[in-house]
Design goal:
The protein is of the alpha+beta class. The protein has 14 helices and 11 strands. It starts with 7 loop residues before the first strand and ends in an 8-residue tail after the last helix. The C terminus is likely disordered.
């Protein structure tokens, strides 16, 4: 199986903060018209007024993704700066509380009405990667096969160590906040597309969801596009961070699709959901600094070892896509320099000032600075 058709698109969520104080600023809706004058429908509101989202066009190459993310971040950052705001790519705000923006945007009122406090506290930012797979059955086969390899991606993407002015002890606290939702987590394998659709319909019929699109699993067939959507990552602090995760995700999707076409219905033995949940928790807790869970072997493994196995597994697909050198280089640099969470904590350790942490994030968001400190 080749790599044609595996297009790629990225959605990134950002915090809008005050340029003077650094606190959350719920001006997203007011800023949206000016942003859309420059970016059109590639910029959107999010759950809270202190958030904005960008969507890349459908791209063919990882280089195209880099160019699109850089352009969208730069233009959006310039637009909000004209109104005395800054754009911050962090899974959580280092010190500003959700109480600084407790309301939700009007289009999400149904979400707040149903989920109440979960929605009010959901001032968090992730990155979603869409991989083009227009065969509905193949999309389900990919969803079924990728679960065991999502936790290393959670670890590499970690970018949310602080919450309401405290170090949470987690590399990705956003992951833990998100996992409270009833439609979060990694789904159990489906027999086929019909079973997937039956499950979604049952959730809708029972009132568990109010719309067929409100399936928030770690990986899912998109309800809007012929894609498989991966939803496990914190938003990348830098463009490099986002490109790394996008490349890994597409490589994983292509690898899973090839395995499905080779083996047909004879997939790998299903992994216990308890192990998948433990693997996600451990990745969110420790990032790349400790052991992760190898769910296929049902054992613990050093993060660097498991990430190395992931790269080895994805290498044939990444080479065929022309992404190996860039993705392996970015992963290697993350293992050497630390995740975005590690970089946030280094500033905190050096300064004791969470405003300095936010300044690092804001500067890095535009894609014009490197990984230091």
């Amino acid at each position: 199986m080749g790599t044609d058709g595996f297009t790629i698109g990225v959605e990134e969520e950002f915090l809008v903060v005050d340029a003077a104080t650094g606190t959350l600023r719920p001006d997203g809706p007011a800023l949206l018209p000016a942003a859309r004058e420059r970016l059109g429908e590639d910029v959107h509101p999010e759950l809270h007024p202190s958030q904005l989202e960008i969507n890349t066009p459908v791209e063919e190459t990882l280089g195209d993704v880099r160019e699109a993310v850089t352009r969208l971040r730069t233009v959006l950052a310039e637009t909000v700066a004209a109104a005395g705001c800054r754009l911050a790519a962090s899974g959580t705000h280092p010190f500003s509380s959700w109480r600084d923006d407790p309301v939700v945007n009007p289009e999400y009122e149904v979400v707040e009405r149903e989920y109440q406090q979960l929605a009010r506290e959901q001032v968090i930012c992730g990155a979603h990667v869409h991989v083009g797979i227009d065969d509905p059955e193949l999309a389900i086969a990919v969803v079924n096969r990728v679960g065991p390899w999502l936790s290393p991606i959670v670890a590499l993407a970690a970018n949310s160590p602080f919450w309401s002015g405290r170090d949470t002890g987690y590399a990705s606290y956003r992951t833990e906040l998100w996992r409270r939702w009833p439609m979060a987590g990694t789904p159990a394998p489906f027999a086929d597309r019909a079973e997937y659709e039956a499950v979604v319909e049952a959730l809708f019929a029972t009132g568990a969801i109010d719309d067929h699109a409100r399936i928030y699993w770690d990986v899912r067939p998109s309800a809007k596009f012929p894609t498989v959507e991966f939803r496990v990552a914190d938003v990348g602090m830098t463009v490099d961070d986002t490109v790394m995760i996008a490349g890994l995700v597409r490589g994983l999707a292509v690898t899973a699709a090839r395995e499905a076409e080779r083996h047909g219905a004879h997939g790998p033995p299903p992994v216990r959901p308890e192990l998948l949940r433990a693997a996600t928790w451990r990745a969110a807790r420790y990032g790349i600094s400790g052991d992760l869970v190898d769910v296929e072997a049902a054992t613990a493994a050093p993060a660097r070892e498991l990430i190395g196995r992931l790269l080895g597994r994805l290498r044939p697909a990444l080479e065929d896509l022309g992404d190996w050198d860039e993705v392996s280089g970015l992963v290697g640099r993350t293992l050497s320099d630390g995740t975005a969470a590690d970089r946030q904590r280094r500033v905190w350790a050096a300064t004791g000032d969470l405003r300095a942490v936010l300044d690092l994030v804001v500067e890095a968001t535009g894609g014009v600075v490197g990984r230091e400190p």
